[in-house]
Each structure stands twice: as structure tokens, then as C-alpha cells.
Write a structure and sequence with these properties.
With 331 residues, this protein is mainly alpha-helical. It has two domains: 4-184 and 297-326, HUPs (Rossmann fold, 3-Layer(aba) Sandwich); 211-292, Tyrosyl-Transfer RNA Synthetase, CATH 1.10.240.10. The protein has twelve helices and five strands. The chain has helices at 17-33, 52-68, 86-95, 100-104, 107-115, 122-136, 150-167, 213-221, 239-252, 256-262, 268-294, 297-326; strands at 4-10, 35-41, 76-80, 142-144, 176-178. The strands form two sheets. The chain has a three-stranded parallel beta sheet with strand order 1-2-3. A two-stranded parallel ribbon has the order 4-5. The two termini are 31 Å apart.
Length: 331
Amino acid sequence: MKKIILSGSTATGDLTIGNYIGAINNWKSLQEEFDCLYFVADLHALTVKQDPEQLRKRCLSFFAQYLALGLDPDKNTLFLQSHVPEHTELSWVLTCLTPMGNLNRMTQFKDKSQQHSKNINAGLFTYPVLMAADILLYQADLIPVGEDQKQHLELCRDIVVYFENHYGEGVFKMPEPYIGEQGARIMSLQDASKKMSKSDENEKNFVSIIDPPKKIQKKIKSAVTDSGEVISYDPENKAGLSNLLTIYSVLSKRTVNQIVNDYEGKMYGHLKVDLAELVCETLKPVQEKYEDLMKNEDHLQALMKKGANKARERASATLKNVYDRIGLLPR
């Protein structure tokens, strides 16, 4: 039996070149070795106020981007979180087990509360419990987590212990963090001290996977670098330039040193022009497939339904065991 890996992206903002390099590009290799489930986390997106029509379009777009980026729906289970109602059902059970003190310690809640001070809702507070339900429903063995999600996985593991203390073992599998081949950490184009984010309000900070070529070129050419003239890799003193070299290295499959040697005696502008062309070339087949998929919404809806049905087979079995263990009558 292959080990189960589960991951998802919250349906906010735009998937970026940072998401591609740091995570999604690696997902393609995992589908050969593991039993993989990938979902669009549309329920998690509701912790921030959403325009209903825009949310619908974004969920469809994210799903199409998953496919365009090379995730095979026959080798992976691809679905929308809201299409599997067991997520919210299990989340309520787990919420009733989770101590308030644990949620009060979640640093991401504190950070998000500052960012969205006019909309500090209960969903934002209990977000990690829904994330635990996402994981535990599918008996996931391994969870790829970034630095900002490690605390949430730790809470998920604590919740397994709380459940076992109340109702016994054998219902949930204890998930482990997946430490595989790590994609490079890609930083903001305008502020290299912070990670590139798909939810950034400033579009100049990121390159979207579906940005048109002219827009990509403009963003990379306007990326903030230092005032020097020598092209070298120095994350501490040349953070912006080093970030561009990292992107160049990953996409070209060449070492940073090789690239630095190629640009000896050249200006930053030369590097930016070539990098912009490389990014456009890399994303061209992805964008072509994406555009083709978005022209056939019925096909996308059919794949979503197929993926949700596959996911529900697993999720419903887990929820049935949970309900039986905690004393709820079968339906």
C-alpha cells in the first residue's frame, strides 16, 4: 500500500511562480510514489470576506491550474473541499474536543487578526480545527507543510491524542510532516525580506501562473534589487538579486554559480530580461493547457465531481467510524 499524502491550497488570490517552484512542481513527482489527494480549500477561504462570483471563478480557475500544472486526475484525487461535506461534519466533532487554550496559542490567528482587524471571525479562530479534519478524514500519513503551517499540524496531532483519550484508538492515523525534496523559497519581487504570497494585495510582488507574458516581463523588470553593479549571489546583502537568481536557477535547472558566471560583466537589466523570457517560456505550455481547460467548464465540473466522489468514499468511512465511536446513531 502506498502512503497517503494530502495537501491543499486556499482559494484566495492567485497561484504564483512561488507556489509552482516551492510546492506544486514537486507534487508531480509524488503522484508516482504516493497515494495523493490534493484539494482546493474553498471553505478555508471564507474566513476572509469573499465576492461570491469571484470565489466561484477562482475555485474553477485553481482546479484548472492544478490540471494544467501536470496533476493527473487518474493518478491523484483532485477535488474541492466544499464538495465533500464530511469536512465540516468532522470539524464540528473535533471542535468540541479542542481546548480553547490550544487555539489561543495559534500564532497565525494572531497574525491574520492584525491583517483583517475588521473581520476577526470565529472561523478564523477555529480554522486549524477544520484543517485537522481535512487531514484526518483521509487517514493521511504525510502532510507537506511550510513553516507557517507547522503549528497547525502539531495541533492536529494533539487532537488525535484528545480523541483517543476520550474514545479509544484505531479511528485516526497519526499524521507526520512530509520532508521531501524542498522547493526553493521564493520571495516577494518588491520586498525580498518576505515570502512571495498568492494573497498579496500588491500585484507587483508576485508573478501569477496565469499572468500574460507582457505582465510577467513588466513585473520582473521592475523587481527591486540593490544599487550595485556586480551580479552575485548574496542573500544577506543582495536579497532581491539573489531571489531572481534562485528563480532563474530552478527554472533553468542550472546552478546559481553557472548563471553568475554567464553574467560576469553584465548589468542587472540583462539578467532581468533573460529571466522574464525564461519564466514566460516555462509557463507557456501551462497557460495554453489552462486556457483550453477553462473553455470547457462542463469537463472541469465532471472532473470535480469524479474527484469528490473518490474523496467521499474515504471520508464517509472515517466519519462513520467517528460517529459510531462517539455514540451518534447511524443514518
